[in-house]
Amino acid sequence: MNEIFGNYIRELRTKKGFTLTQLAAKLDLDSANLSKIENGKRDFDEKRLVLLSDVFKIEINELKKEYYGDFIARKIYDSNCSEEILLVAEEKVKYLRSINVKQINLDL
């Protein structure tokens, strides 16, 4: 998606017919904080992703994709990095996964 994670939450909330106060209560937040999250003035707490998944009946991996995509995009934007950094990061993830697989095989 081309929106910030807060907008994504707002879309989910309005489609489900929840008020700001209702969703805030389900996420154990006060409505002022949820409003700030939806408006991009405060970050969503990663620890609440599972709860958000439960509330909206969305696969956790779908939420993680949106959450981490937004997180990484903001870091790149705030640091004034080129988009090429994503290619480097992708290679590093592949490397880290290969190390993990090798470690698992050694443990067996």
- The shape, in one word, is globular
Task: Tally the helices.
Answer: 6
Element-by-element helix/strand order:
HHHHHH
Going by helix content, strand content and strand pairing, the class is: mainly alpha
Question: What is the CA–CA distance across the termini?
Answer: 41 Å
Q: How would you classify the quaternary structure?
A: single chain
Work out the radius of gyration: 17 Å
Strand content: under 5%
Number of strands: 0
Brief overview:
This protein is mostly helical and 108 residues long. The chain has helices at 5-16, 20-26, 31-38, 49-56, 60-78, 84-107.
Structure characterization notes:
The chain is mostly helical. The chain has 6 helices and no strands. It is globular. It starts with a helix and ends with a helix.
Please tag this protein with its features.
108 residues, mainly alpha
What's the layout of helices and strands?
Blueprint: H1 5-16, H2 20-26, H3 31-38, H4 49-56, H5 60-78, H6 84-107
